[in-house]
Amino acid sequence: MSRQDVTDKIIEAKVLKGINWQDVANAVGKSKEWTTAGCLGQMTFTAEQADKIADIFGLDEDDKKWLQDVPYKGSLPESVPTDPLIYRFYELVNVYGTTFKALIHEEFGDGIMSAIDFSMDLQREPNEKGDRVNIVLSGKFLPYKEY
Predict the structure, then answer these.
(1) What angle in degrees, to the nearest 10, is found between the helix axes of 32-39 and 3-17?
(2) Average confidence (pLDDT) per 10 residues, the chain, 147 residues
(3) Residue 107 annotated in active site
(4) Residues 99 and 92: beta-carbon distance below 8 Å
(5) Residue 141: predicted pLDDT
(6) CA distance 65 to 46
(7) Which of 2, 12, 88, 138 is the catalytic position?
(8) Residue 95, pLDDT score
(9) Looking at residue 77, what is its pLDDT?
(10) Which of 9, 22, 62, 117 has a Cα at 20 to 30 A from 140?
């Protein structure tokens, strides 16, 4: 068994039981974005959170241990994603990545935006031309240190 096996069980139960990510997040007490990432194998749950996840998805004691283990981060199986939605994010970084870098460095200096001290908010934004996906990414700026 592996963490991926537990993720597969979660996805199967979600589909078969018609579970909603927001409902899972409400039960866990965290954001839908973080909770979904955890259920998909990218975050580590506490014992209490793992108990709640196990109850929702019908997982056993061994599965709960995997939910509490630090996962291997990075969920894409190939370097250039083939899923159309994920590919658009890849495209976004290819087109705007240098712009993000230039503007962050101009505003903050030499450093990076943390994906560890980080939050994300994803919302539907009604629009007369067709609903839009509104994603706000907020990561702590970490300057490179001099030594």
Answers:
(1) 120
(2) 95 97 97 95 96 98 97 80 91 89 93 95 98 97 92
(3) no
(4) no
(5) 97
(6) 10
(7) 88
(8) 85
(9) 72
(10) 22
CATH class for the domain made up of 3-67? mainly alpha
Domain parsing of the chain, residue ranges: 3-67, 84-143
Our answer to whether residue 31 is catalytic in this structure is no
Asked if 75 contacts 42 with a C-beta cutoff of 8 angstroms, the reply is: yes
Tracing tokens 């975050």 back to the chain, one arrives at: 43
pTM, rounded to two decimals: 0.80
* Active-site residue, from 75, 114, 119, 138: 114
84-143 CATH: 3.30.1160.10
The active-site residue out of 91, 119, 132, 138 is 91
**How many other C-beta atoms can be found within 10 angstroms of the C-beta atom of residue 6?**
26
Q: Which residues pair with 119 in a beta bridge?
A: 138
Of residues 106, 141, 6, the one with CA closest to residue 65? 6
